[in-house]
Design goal:
With about 300 residues, the protein is of the alpha/beta class. It folds into two domains: about 130 residues, Aspartate/ornithine carbamoyltransferase (Rossmann fold), CATH 3.40.50.1370; about 150 residues, Aspartate/ornithine carbamoyltransferase (Rossmann fold, 3-Layer(aba) Sandwich). Helices cover about 40% and strands about 15% of the residues. It has twelve helices and nine strands.
């Protein structure tokens, strides 16, 4: 079993991960030896704070070990992905990779004899969405029937939220510029399930939302588009005026790092409605649940 994108997982499997993550968070001592003797390879083409720290800390807390591999400091820059992954599989039990292109995570998975986790690619960020679902459930008590408004760039985080939320009964209302809409197969899934809608207007998307979510306007690898994007996205800033259109008890979410006073105003990210650090913390518990599940150490 791999975790490449949430489209590959049905709702019951996603729910199992959320439930397991809650158990691991509440009683970490019950899992402190769950992955004893197991090794995780963490392969990074992109820089990382939360993904690296949560996976490495998670393996340690489960009794296992993690190896950090900077792509640029390995022979992945010389050999083929397939050859290097086949070698890596001789040493470790599971691989997590954070890459620029989805084609690379597919190549890693295709060559690997070990489970593979997508730590992020240009199209998907499944681990982030799982952590967000855990956070939503904690803050709102249950998931079904909630409305999450996503405002900004229809990027990898947005794609994964549409799929994960839709499968668990959360309606995602996305507001993006027309030229930056979410990935079509993610959006189509949501439309087919009745749990996704798109609007060009942030105000229309945010109205009566239980949660308002945004992300950076310029993701890693898109730096050459910065000027164009900065002309288009200012109307999509999440500020106090926009948050006032959501429900009074709405929460604000961001996957971080945040570019303050660009995609989100300080007054919002620093407000009592903000749960961004709870989201970051829940990455640890979800990562542990994914590792346990993929290595067959959970029901």
């Amino acid at each position: 079993m791999n975790l490449l994108k949430l489209l590959d997982w049905d709702s019951s499997r996603i729910s199992e991960i959320i439930e397991l993550a809650s158990e691991v968070k509440e009683t970490p001592e019950n899992y402190s030896k769950g992955l004893e003797g197991k090794t995780l390879a963490m392969l990074f083409q992109k820089t990382s704070t939360r993904t690296r720290a949560s996976f490495e800390a998670g393996m340690t807390q489960l009794g296992g070990h993690a190896i950090y591999l900077d792509w640029r400091a390995t022979n992945f820059t010389l050999g083929t992905i397939q050859d290097e992954v086949k070698c890596l599989g001789q040493y470790v039990d599971i691989i997590m990779a954070r890459v620029f292109r989805h084609e690379d995570i597919e190549a890693i998975s295709g060559a690997s004899s070990r489970p593979v986790i997508n730590g992020l690619c240009n199209l998907w960020h499944p681990c982030q969405a799982l952590g967000d679902l855990l956070t939503l459930k904690e803050k709102k008590g249950s998931l079904k029937g909630l409305k999450l408004a996503y405002v900004g760039d229809g990027n990898n985080v947005c794609n994964s939220l549409i799929v994960g939320c839709s499968k668990l009964g959360v309606h995602v209302s996305a507001a993006t510029p027309k030229q930056y809409k979410p990935l079509q197969d993610a959006a189509s899934f949501g439309e087919n399930s009745g749990n996704y809608s798109w609007a060009e207007s942030p105000a229309a998307a945010v109205k009566d939302a239980d949660a308002v979510y945004t992300d950076t306007w310029v993701s890693m690898g898109q730096e050459q588009e910065t000027k164009d994007r900065e002309r288009v996205f200012p109307p999509y800033q999440v500020n106090g005026k926009l948050m006032a259109l959501a429900k009074k008890d709405a929460i604000f979410m961001h996957c971080l790092p945040a570019h303050r006073n660009r995609e989100v105003a300080d007054s919002v990210i620093d407000s009592k409605q903000s749960v961004v650090f709870d989201q970051a913390g829940n990455r640890l518990h979800v990562q542990k649940a994914v590792l346990l599940k993929l290595l067959g150490k959970a029901g």
